[in-house]
Structure formats: structure tokens, C-alpha cells
């Protein structure tokens, strides 16, 4: 089964909250074992003693073939958390999600979760980890129900003991069946997703088990039982190949920028320089990075210009993608810090981008005045209305600036939806991966009848348009 088939199965299957969708966490929603990051954070903070570290590693090396092995392992691991408050551990979990774990989120898992949520299903994350390790991820994914290994708490402080049975092997299966009974779910119509051989019983708890990124044991069982097998692209730490590819891509971009500027100076023609940078620079940089760009609705990029092109922002790669797609006669509005960016700063200054101090609302509003003049002169403008790169493929709240500009200049809004750029170059990463970025350029939106009073509703509708597009990608 591929991802498209898995999504179609959800969209055409039974709908409503009586259908459950149970997702394992580590290896299924995120790449690898998230507990490593949580434990390392406490170790680096000097909060784990050498004896605790040794005991945990020794038990990990011994393996967890039986449930007794696993119970012994988690008893030692969670003992290190004794004396810490729940608030402290939630804070660590949130910080680690922001700095690391969000970058290990499988984009395919995000799409599956969104498909189940769009179908009105009751979505559940079931994990042997503690609540503190997965709560931030559940919040970011909009998942209200999580099943986890319970830890003993006294007056808001952890005792270092597990409070009952851990959710591993039979523990996870039992907890899932109890949840199905307690919430009146239809087990035969529900779904389970997991990657580990220890989760066979958990997968059996619903009528639609899917071996997701399966290990050898689970793959063998899945083939014996004719279960669907679904694989996601690995999200591990980039290596030497990615380092070389990133250096080549940045080198190509730098070379193209300065070559374009040189051509402009020699020929005293700034437009020639800009066209050289956007057309040649983007193509060279993306090619050296091993990145393909697939565009849907390309004609919409040129149907009505000038325009305000708005895009969802998840990656530093987005400006290069937009340069390839829009090609010519555009400039941008971006945060003032980008003026000194080592990769794009010179280019943005040369093309006349407007740099806005987001911490000073008054200055930001004043800075947008010349942008209206730019549009009226015939040059389009590109803006990320979220204001900053997002950690996940989710759409953040759109700010009003881009839409005020379009209304004042009386030019259309053109939505540009970018998919997978965050997978290629994540917010907190400096290394590119090869792959394909999808871009959907939607039909221009006439703003001639928009008013300040109805602007919040108009923006909310546009945010939802982006969400629908990402959830159900258009085809031509």
C-alpha cells in the first residue's frame, strides 16, 4: 500500500467519531525513538547521575524481548525523574518538540492523521512513553486522546515509579481495547498503525491494522496475515551526502546571485540581473541540491499581474522555490533579520525587498506603504502571511498585512501552497535532503469587494483553503 491508497481508504471508508484511528508514536508518527532526546536533555542538564545512565544503558543493551524485560527497563529509566515536577517535564517535552522532535515528524503520518480527522474519526496516539514525552506532539497535531505509560505523581512531583502497567505489547493492546469500549467505538471499522513486532496484539485490536515502517518481525507477520504495509521516507539525521549537496546548492545560489548582479552592472540593466538570478539561480541551486519542483496550476502564476502572492512558510528553501515558479517581475516582504542572511540577504537587498521589524507594529505598518506603490508600478509582491516558518506542515494564523496591501493597491491575492519543503530543509536544520517539492498555485482572488470589517472572515476562509489543499492535493 502506498500513501495515496492509504489516504483514499480513509476518505472512502466509514466516517464519524465511532471510527477510531490508533497511532503508535515512535517509528510511526516520528522517525526513531523520541525518548533518546528527552533523556539526553536531562543528561546534558546534569540531572542524570552516572549510575542511572549506566543502569539504563545496560538494561537497554540486554534487550526487551519479554514484557518483564521492558518493565525492568522503564522502572530504571523513569527512576531518574524522581523529584521533578510535572510542569518541569512538560516544559522539557515542549522545548524538545520545538527544537528536535518536530523535525523528525513524518510528513506522511501528518497527512494520514489529517485524513482521519477530516473523516471525523476519533484519533488516538498510543505509546509506551510517558505523557510528558508525547503531549507537545499531540497538541501540535491536534490529537486530543493519548494513551501512555502512567507515572506515579504525589503533590505534582514524580516519585520515579510507574503507576501500573506500561503500555508495551499487551499493555498497549489492553489500553486500546478499553478505550474502544469506553468510547463506544466500532472496532471492526477502526484503524491501527504501528512499526514494531511487539505491537501485533495492538494492531489486532481493530479491523484495519497497517504495518507502518515495519521492523523485520512485524513485516513477516503482516505478510503472513495479508496486512497492508506502509512505508514512509526516513527522517534520520542528514549525513555526508546531504552536507555535500547543501554546499553545492548554496554555492550555486551564491554564484548565480553575483553573476546576475555582474550582468546587471555591465549592461546597466537591473531587470536583466534580476531575471538572471531568479531564472538561472533557482534552477541551478535546486538541481545541485537534488530537488525537483512539481507545479500544479502554473498558469495562475501569470494570469493576473501584478498580484500579492501569499505562501505557507515552512522552510528557508521557500524563496528559491518561489523564484523558480514565479520567474520574473516580483519582490518580497520579509523580516528585517533577513537583510543580513548569509544566503539570501544580498539577493533580497538587490531585488528591493521590504524588510519589516515584526517587534515594532507601528514601524511595520509604515514600512508597507512603499509596497503598495511597488504593486501599482507593475511589480508583484511575495509575502508569507504566517510571518515565520512553521515547525510542521500545519498552517499557522495569517497576519493581515498582505491583505491590507492587496486591498489598498486593488490587486488580486494569489495563494501559493507549498508541500514538502519542510521535509527537504526543516526550520532548525542547515542541511538539505534531495526530494520533490509540490507547489499548487491556486486561482487569483479578487479583493475589490473586501472590507476591513469582513477581513478576519476572509482570512479564515483562506487559511482553510490552504488546509484543504494540503489535505487533498489537486491534480491536473
From TrEMBL:
Domain of life from the UniProt record: Bacteria
Keyword Lipid metabolism: yes
EC number: 2.3.1.51
Swiss-Prot/TrEMBL catalytic activity: a 1-acyl-sn-glycero-3-phosphate + an acyl-CoA = a 1,2-diacyl-sn-glycero-3-phosphate + CoA
EC category: transferase
Key words, A-Z: Acyltransferase, Hydrolase, Lipid biosynthesis, Lipid metabolism, Phospholipid biosynthesis, Phospholipid metabolism, Transferase
Database matches in InterPro entries: AGP_acyltrans (IPR004552), HAD-like_sf (IPR036412), HAD_hydro_SerB1 (IPR006385), HAD_sf (IPR023214), Plipid/glycerol_acylTrfase (IPR002123)
SUPFAM superfamilies with a match to the protein in the record: Glycerol-3-phosphate (1)-acyltransferase, HAD-like
A UniProt-annotated Pfam family: HAD
Chain segments annotated as coiled-coil in the UniProt record: none
Sequence ranges assigned to domain Phospholipid/glycerol acyltransferase in this UniProt record: 307-421
GO MF annotations, alphabetized: hydrolase activity
Entry comment, domain topic: The HXXXXD motif is essential for acyltransferase activity and may constitute the binding site for the phosphate moiety of the glycerol-3-phosphate.
Protein family membership: Belongs to the 1-acyl-sn-glycerol-3-phosphate acyltransferase family.
Protein name: 1-acyl-sn-glycerol-3-phosphate acyltransferase
Amino acid at each position: 500500500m502506498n500513501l495515496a491508497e492509504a489516504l483514499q481508504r480513509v476518505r472512502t471508508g466509514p466516517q464519524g467519531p465511532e471510527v477510531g484511528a490508533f497511532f503508535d508514536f515512535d517509528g510511526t508518527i516520528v522517525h526513531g525513538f523520541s525518548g533518546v532526546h528527552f533523556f539526553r536533555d536531562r543528561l546534558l542538564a546534569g540531572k542524570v547521575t552516572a549510575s542511572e545512565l549506566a543502569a539504563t544503558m545496560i538494561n537497554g543493551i540486554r534487550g526487551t524481548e519479554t514484557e518483564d524485560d521492558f518493565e525492568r527497563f522503564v522502572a530504571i529509566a523513569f527512576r531518574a525523574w524522581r523529584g521533578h515536577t510535572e510542569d518541569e517535564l512538560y516544559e522539557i517535552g515542549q522545548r524538545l518538540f520545538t527544537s528536535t522532535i518536530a523535525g523528525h515528524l513524518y510528513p506522511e503520518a501528518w497527512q494520514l492523521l489529517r485524513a482521519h480527522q477530516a473523516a471525523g474519526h476519533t484519533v488516538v496516539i498510543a505509546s509506551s512513553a510517558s505523557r510528558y514525552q508525547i503531549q507537545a506532539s499531540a497538541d501540535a497535531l491536534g490529537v486530543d486522546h493519548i494513551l501512555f505509560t502512567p507515572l506515579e505523581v504525589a503533590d505534582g512531583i514524580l516519585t520515579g515509579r510507574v503507576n501500573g502497567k506500561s503500555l508495551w505489547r499487551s499493555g498497549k493492546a489492553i489500553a486500546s481495547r478499553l478505550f474502544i469500549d469506553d468510547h463506544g467505538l466500532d472496532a471492526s471499522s477502526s484503524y491501527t498503525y504501528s512499526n514494531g513486532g511487539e505491537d501485533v496484539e495492538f494492531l489486532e485490536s481493530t479491523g484495519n491494522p497497517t504495518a507502518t515502517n515495519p521492523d523485520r518481525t512485524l513485516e513477516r507477520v503482516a505478510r503472513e496475515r495479508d496486512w497492508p504495509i506502509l512505508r514512509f521516507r526516513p527522517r534520520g539525521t542528514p549525513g555526508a551526502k546531504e552536507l555535500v549537496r547543501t554546499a553545492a546548492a548554496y554555492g550555486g545560489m551564491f554564484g548565480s546571485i553575483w553573476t546576475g548582479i555582474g550582468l546587471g552592472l555591465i549592461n546597466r540593466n537591473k531587470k536583466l540581473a534580476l531575471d538572471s538570478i531568479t531564472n538561472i539561480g533557482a534552477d541551478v541551486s535546486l538541481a545541485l541540491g537534488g530537488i525537483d519542483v512539481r507545479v500544479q496550476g502554473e498558469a495562475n502564476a501569470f494570469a493576473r499581474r501584478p498580484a500579492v502572492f501569499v505562501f505557507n512558510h515552512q522552510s528557508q528553501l521557500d524563496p528559491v522555490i518561489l523564484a523558480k515558479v514565479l520567474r520574473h517581475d516580483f519582490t518580497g516582504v520579509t523580516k528585517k533579520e533577513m537583510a543580513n542572511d548569509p544566503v539570501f540577504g544580498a539577493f533580497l537587498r538587490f531585488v528591493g525587498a521590504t524588510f519589516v521589524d515584526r517587534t515594532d507594529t507601528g514601524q511595520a505598518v509604515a514600512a508597507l506603504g512603499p509596497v503598495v506603490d511597488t504593486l501599482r508600478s507593475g511589480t508583484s509582491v511575495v509575502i508569507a502571511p504566517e510571518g515565520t516558518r512553521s515547525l510542521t506542515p500545519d498552517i499557522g494564523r495569517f497576519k493581515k498585512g498582505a491583505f491590507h496591501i492587496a486591498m489598498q493597491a486593488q490587486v488580486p491575492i494569489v495563494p501559493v501552497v507549498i508541500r514538502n519543503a519542510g521535509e527537504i530543509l526543516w526550520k532548525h536544520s542547515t542541511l538539505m535532503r534531495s526530494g520533490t517539492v509540490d507547489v499548487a498555485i491556486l486561482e487569483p482572488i479578487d479583493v475589490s469587494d473586501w472590507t476591513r470589517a469582513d477581513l478576519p472572515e476572509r482570512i479564515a476562509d483562506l487559511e482553510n483553503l490552504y488546509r484543504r489543499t494540503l489535505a487533498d492535493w489537486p491534480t491536473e
